[in-house]
Design a protein that fits this description.
single chain, about 350 residues, alpha/beta, Rossmann fold, 11 helices
Amino acid sequence: MWRIHSNSLKCGAHPEPEAMLDLAAATYRHPLHKPTLRNPWATAPGPGVQGVSLQLSGGSITGLVGPNGAGKSTLMQMIAGILPLEDGSLTIEGSGARSTLRNVISFMPERVNWTGPGRVSHVLERLCLMRGLDLAEGERLLELVGLGARSSDDISTLSQGMKQRLSLATALLGGPKILLLDEPLNGLDPVAQGAFRVLLRQLADQGCGILISSHNLSDLESLSDEIILMHQGRVLADGPLIEIERKLGLVARLEIAGLGEAPTNFGPSVSAEDIPVLSGEDWAYCLHLEKGEWTVDRKSEFQSFRLTRLQAVKPGLENVISAATGLDVEAAGFEILSEVRGDA
């Protein structure tokens, strides 16, 4: 079990959310090998990230979402300083110095291949020595992510979920103000995922700016204060999910079900779609409102029916992605529901 204590989270404190990181018109294209007769080592610009601008604020969790190959991991590596900016700029707390970047940002890649001999505690001890940190901080972080009891075990004995926890512990060293997490829930069981979500919210509440990428849409919806939607190396939309939904013109939906004869008319500007009937219901529809919202007055129009169900349905990330990219969610490589991906 993860031990979550607020006094163990040493993220940079900010009293109010503010833009700590500003990425402006940033571009990086992966080089593709294209040999010629004159130059067998020649390369040409390939896919990557093109002209992306975004801000990350302290105290906020931002979900990064997009189809496979959208450029999410590339973007995170650009922000972390692993990949250079070919164009554009990156400033952190008003500074563009790389030393500022190293001191403020921490990056947890999708999967770290923890191999070789050595105990779990050795990983944190070596990193603490390299960065001039107290060894006790490494011990606290192992306790925080639930690896305190495994600190003396060999790394090779850890499951994939435990290796994810170890990666998170290393990312939290030094109390970063900006935390970049690429698919951090991979390999964690549902209990560990829940504890991880609580931990992220505590970090954000203490002022940390968090950017998290995941193919699990339910995770991102529940975690994120704002969303960045990428496709083909560009940002298609960003901001609170509800604002993105409105900008994309997604219509309001209402689930309605009842007893007796099924109604045939729900009023102007409303289209009806059959949905599964639950036990104790005779009919059920999803109503699509072409304009506006399902206000209390609009809902009251259905009081003459013998209703068993009347509830608004948010468009959600699934519909946002489809509307913005033209792809269905399965084709884009997403998961809608949380699933067990391995032991933790």
